[in-house]
Amino acid sequence: MNPFKIFTGGALDTNAYFFQTPSGNLLFDAPQGADEHFSGEKIDWLILTHGHFDHVMDATKIQRRHNCRVAFHPDTVPMLADGAFFKKHGFDIQYEPCSADHLLDEGETRAICGLKILCLHVPGHCPGSLCFYFPEQGLLVAGDVLFREGVGRWDLPGGDGPLLFEGIRKKIFPLDPTTLVLPGHGPATTVGHEIEWNPYVQRL
Known about the structure:
By secondary structure, this protein is α/β, with parallel strands linked by helices. It has one domain: Ribonuclease Z/Hydroxyacylglutathione hydrolase-like (Metallo-beta-lactamase, Chain A), CATH 3.60.15. The chain has helices spanning about 35, 55, 60-65, 75-80, 160-170, 190-195; strands at about 5-10, 15-20, 25-30, 45, 70, 100-105, 110, 115-120, 130-135, 140-145, 145, 150, 180-185, 190. The strands form three sheets. A six-stranded mixed β-sheet has the order 1-2-3-4-5-6, with helices on one face. A six-stranded mixed β-sheet has the order 7-8-9-10-13-14.
């Protein structure tokens, strides 16, 4: 796997991660501006960590431009199927609906673009939040589950703080401490750093 590329876009400075492999190219998340930024690349798979608007604004544009396969968790379907989903919860935000070619669930290990990827379902920030662990590369795409010395907010629709903290402790903290964590916002971190320094989630 070649080194990944990072794009940060949209009003909330949301990270997208682009991986090039000999077997195809993979993009995690689709913040506003990602379609234009990656227009010169070939995207074979778009995988969405969760359905919050800042991560999916350009999903349909990317799907249309690249004719790529799109994948996300079943609990994300209601958010992506209704472009006005967040308007019903008081946000003046609308986006194009997006459909999945593949639904991903907890514990699935898939070979996507030649990469072995394990899906970890860690709700609490958002229903359907998935983290994607690359065991052979020692890397975790964390979405908004875990940040550098922070966690995703849990006061949005479907949020649940204790559920989020439990999921991080049980599913992320047992990974190798050297695992590189690529969050949905902010700089990268490692599992070991978060076990040691994250003020929200301490290993019990």
